[in-house]
Amino acid sequence: MDTEGVVAELAEKARVIRRHIIEMLGEAGSGHPGGSLSAADIVTALYFKEMRLDPTRPDWPDRDRFVLSKGHAAPVLYAALAERGYFPTEELATLRKLGSRLQGHPDMKKLPGVEISTGSLGQGLSVANGMALAARLDGRDYRVYALLGDGEIQEGQVWEAAMAAAYYALENLAVFIDYNGLQIDGPVNEVLAPEPVPEKWRAFGWHVVEIDGHDFRQILAALAEGRHTRGQPTAIVARTVKGKGVSFMENRVDWHGVAPKGDQIVQALKELA
Amino acid sequence: MPKIATREAYGKALVALGEENPDVVVLDADLAKSTKTIEFKKRFPHRFFDLGVAEANMIGTAAGLATAGKIPFCSTFAVFATGRCYDQIRQSVAYPGLPVTIAASHAGITVGEDGASHQAVEDMALMRVLPNMTVFVPADAVETAGAVRAAAEAGGPVYIRLGRSGVPVLHGDDFEFVPGRAVEMRRGLDATIIACGLMVAQALEAVEQLAAEGIEVGVLNVHTLKPLDVQAIVDAAQRTGAIVTAEEHSIIGGLGSAVAETLAEHYPVPMLRVGLRDVFGESGRPDELLQKYGLTADAIVDAVQSLL
Asked: Which one of A9, A88, A97, A169 is least enclosed by Cβ atoms within 10 Å?
């Protein structure tokens, strides 16, 4: 398929995933739409183009790994896993309900396809490093991807892990920074400015690519660049819009951790039709 | 009796384990010479990872290795392993139930001269409260070797508490370390001392002193703090009617608490806890500190006598 065709297919898949996110959160009555929607295109590109996966064998040793370090964006991961065939899409409606495999934050023990339980911010990159080191020890060629929030990189452990990944030259690792500019207490630059973000990763020894995190061509190109980078892990600083795809949620910090209800759900789904 | 620090025994046991199992990997945080993981590093350099002075990242890295089928052992001082990395252990290891062993050296006040900042007196409490976690507190070199082997086979998170200073070797080479099963070191009639770690040797000394006065005291060595051998503790309470616990740890949250919880629910008898009484340690020689903080055979003898 030509690039245009691939991009069109990914855009359509991302639309379906965004609809799932709205429906799941509406059904659950709580959860995190803003950061799920901002990451939807990145996660779609990974699960429907970039990653080597077999949903019938979630423990296949040679599979690529994805670590959702910003675990509160669980809805985008669940929607992608369901659409990719890890479990029925009907199960998405059980999000956050008693007895569900779809916990408020991802639980690897419950749900196939979840590579590591996350939720406490700042820990996923360390785990991704361990997966990448294991690939090297075993001589396997799988790649490891992690998605971090821009607020999340305020956690000190992220920088411990960033230092280690570069020192151990984890070229089989690529990290997305979902740089949507907002965190719970407000704009990241007013809470605790992480800027300059690309320069920080570069200074820690990473190969850095800056992209528009909603442009599939740029996402795929950055992933390809990461694949071909030797001796360094790759950090993809992706400028995104929190709440992307739902007009009244876009760039609104209030939608970090509040679920849509009633007319809001109807309106959001209309926009994502 | 020969004395060997449990950290020394750990270093040797790791190498032996590494020879047998190629999936065993070892991580340290710039303390390999002190924790004795240096022995593994020398033998298997490609399976050893020094993560520098960044303990939290070490624990997460171990979790990632474990998801891919590795059997990671992480070492640093107990105070950093458990306090500094509590959330990483909770979220990335215990909650997903990954087979990561945190083997922490320099536990308790026998760290000595480095002082309170480096003396973990609450690590057993912190690890014991975590669901899915197994907690081993070996009393000597032989138990340490057994604990290391058991940890590799546990299939889930394990904490092993190790010490800096030499402790007497209490067991022969034929000793079988069975996780979760307390070891009856002496059988008594009048009271039972339930001890772990280096306090087991002190308990055995206390037994001799009390025997000279015609008091027959048993010693139950709880090398596995979790899962606790409830039956052995209840049996000891039923048989002897009085219990003294002894640990190089705060009396809050550790062995004394675990035993008190067990007795309160199953078979309440008079008991006393020998341990640190809700205080931090300080600088000094290990023997001086044990004396000052009442972690001695004499202190155990006093506790037993005051119960009878």
From this structure: A88
